[in-house]
Amino acid sequence: MAALAASALNRALRLHPNSAQALHSLGFVHMWAGETEQAIDCFLRTIRISPRDQEIGYMLHGLGTTYLMCGRDAEALEAGLGAVEEMPKHGPSHRVLIVAMVRLGRIEEAQAVTARLLKVVPDSHLADIKPPSRIPGFAERFLSDLRLAGYPE
Fold it and tell me: What was the pLDDT predicted at 11?
């Protein structure tokens, strides 16, 4: 399925090489497929092409998640901060920020962000979260990091 989506998006990019929407979507396809370097490239190109895009928060969320997938936690923190600033009620962006903080040893800050998120999205639980899982151990570690920050089961 990912190969089919990537093929269609690459075809769209051949027709419109500066299509922010196609690049953004291709970034998520690569992210979910575990192709982190390609995903990062797509997200960064999208942000360069369309820095004031109405979807910038989602681009930053995808970039932050992908940085977490390849252990670039400080960069994930920066992207997560930008995503939360753009989309203050978007749970997945908060989770990127929380996990990055936990991995950088900033547990108290991660707990504070968790508390803020739970005020905005009170029905959020670990059981409902499905992180990308093509990278061995990533999903389990992501959920474990959220647990350390006080995220409810």
Answer: 86
Residue type, 4: L
The one-character DSSP state at 96 is: H
pTM tops 0.90: yes
CA separation, residue 54 to residues 2, 46, 47, 107 (Å): 25, 12, 11, 31
CB 96, CB 64: distance < 8 Å: yes
How many C-beta atoms surround the C-beta of residue 19 within 10 A? 17
Please, are residues 129 and 114 in contact by the beta-carbon 8 Å criterion?
no
Taking each helix axis from N to C end, the angle separating 56-69 and 20-32, rounded to the nearest 10 degrees, works out to 30
State the DSSP code for 134.
S
Token pair recorded at residue 34: 């575990």
With contact defined as beta carbons under 8 Å apart, do 99 and 79 qualify? no
Q: One-letter amino acid identity for 73?
A: D
Measured over all CA atoms, what is the biggest interatomic distance in the chain, rounded to whole angstroms? 48
State the pLDDT at residue 21: 92
Instruction: Write phi, then psi, for 123 (nearest 5 degrees).
Output: -95, 20
